[in-house]
Amino acid sequence: MDWVSDDSDGSSVDLSWLSDHDQDQHHDEPPLPLIPAPANQALQDETGASTSSLMSHFLDMGFSQELVAKAIKENGDGNSGSILELLLTYKMLEENPSGNERNQENTLSDDNDWGDDDLSDIDDFDDMDFELEMSGQASFSKKLRTLEEMGFSRDEASSAIKRCGEDVPIFELADSIYAAQTAEKEGGVWDYDAFNSDQKKEGDKYDPFSHDNKRRRCDGASSSRCRSSIQMRERLKRAYRRPATTSRRCGGDGDAVGELDNLNLPNPMVGFGLPTEPGRQLYRDIPKEAQGPPYFFYENVALTPKGVWPTISRFLYGILPEFVDSKYFSAACRKRGYIHNLPIANRFCLEPIPAKAILDAFPLARVHWPTWDTRTQFNCLQTCIGSAQLTERIRAKLVASDDPPPLDVIRWVMYECRKWNLIWVGQNRVAPLEPDEVEFLLGFPRDHTRGVSRTERYKSLGNSFQVDTVAYQLSVLKDLYPNGIRVLSLFSGIGGAEVALHRLGIKMTAVLSVEISPINRTILRSWWEQTGQVGELEEVDDVQRVDDVVLERFIARHGGFDLVIGGSPCNNLAGSNRHHRDGLSGEHSSLFYHYFRILDIVKHLMARK
């Protein structure tokens, strides 16, 4: 992915290369962001669906038969998206029958849900005033009065307008207040002023619910569209609080697990077991609503702020993550978590089996390797490298020292070598890994990223999959799809998933690739053409543009999707820069919710086939 790495000027150093013992595994996470639903979120059933199939679909989602029947009767059976919105509204009213009762401080209810009066108030607005407020054109005093009528205090309303700007729609202001209340109630602090001073440019207005910090508006300022936005937020909130579906702990003894909040990183980090491990786990329980096909596969960094993986797991059907360190598949560490619904029996490794030690992977370095450098594997490969000034300082220090050097010199040199993954290239001389060496360690073909600048090569490779690790988990698909597979590749990057499937010998008959970086798209397209892929590669440049229309068009041409795969950006989940380590509410990491949104649409569309 084309995301900027942590600052490299020394004031903010990325410490994600450290081992489990050197780095804290969990940090407090800001409250769950309630992102606005895109305008095209509703699923339009162009061909219509039978009442019985719609009934089954919504009953499987947990709605009562009475509510489903009522919603279909009022809305008809031609638009499942509208029925879902209506069901969510019924559910909110059912769960909050006393929403008109407000406390003396005019705060929201204890469980942070919107009461039934909140939605009924919307219907009481004058149509003209409502459209003005939704479009952000109402005056300060009008918005202040409206927010007070919605139950917020004058101070809360005034602060939100000053914080977000007077031209922000009313429901984004309400969301802003709600986020601050949630943070305070959960013991956190949502400090907008301090947060903005580090993130926004001069003159920009920060919107915590938009990943690109651009203010969103309700298209057409229609009341139904804005209600849809509220209902999507309520749906996300319910998913966040949803009890975990019974599953099996990865790499454990198979005991059923009912709580996600106490997830701990396993040690060793071997997931369901290594390929050479005789007692590895072969079976697990997958919730019925999560079973494939279509299969899905989600990846992100293992070391995240506290609460991130439980939240991701709740959204992805309560499936527990499989944590795997790539040091068991290559000569470099790469701690990652994976949530997927793939079978776990009959996995196999790519061949040839890669070297798992530095000197086996790079034997020419052996002649220059000092005996006091005890490294056997590299740390996590980064998006940036050590500078020439640093390597020269190391050389000068070693030349001026005895052989072997003093202990303090050894400690300093080893610290820098581990931090920047430096390799010995001569007597007293170290250097960063070359891009082709990083490609080799990550399982990509030589010169996969050649043709772009060195800086861009390191950035793209640092954000990619470790191909051998991912291929081991995807290998079960080879017997399932002997005639080829249709793939939805989200956050494709430089094509780690595609390279893994190709190296497994799995033919890709059609791929819909979604990637925002034009450089990464060029790299993937070039590899696709050079390897003679016979399938069709379609490209979209932003996950926010992937809606039911795009997906239905692909399904009409190719018959559907067999695999949805991707890993959303980890910029706000990893690294030592606490100003940007914001968990799933971060500017980039909140894109995970689009993975969930798109997967949900795919499952619905495929269920209709």
Automatic annotation (TrEMBL):
The family database entries (SUPFAM superfamilies) matched by this protein are listed as: S-adenosyl-L-methionine-dependent methyltransferases, UBA-like
The alphabetized UniProt keywords are: DNA-binding, Methyltransferase, Nucleus, Repeat, S-adenosyl-L-methionine, Transferase
Q: Basic and acidic residues bias: where? A: 19-30, 201-212
Look up the record and report any one GO term of the cellular component aspect. Answer: nucleus
Task: Spell out the Polar residues composition-biased ranges.
Answer: 97-107
Which GO BP terms sit in this record? methylation
Question: Catalytic center at which residues?
Answer: C570
Note whether Nucleus occurs among the keywords: yes
Q: Name one GO molecular function term.
A: DNA binding
Chain intervals for the UniProt region annotation (Disordered): 1-38, 95-116, 201-224
Q: State what protein this is by name.
A: DNA (cytosine-5-)-methyltransferase
Origin species: Rhynchospora pubera
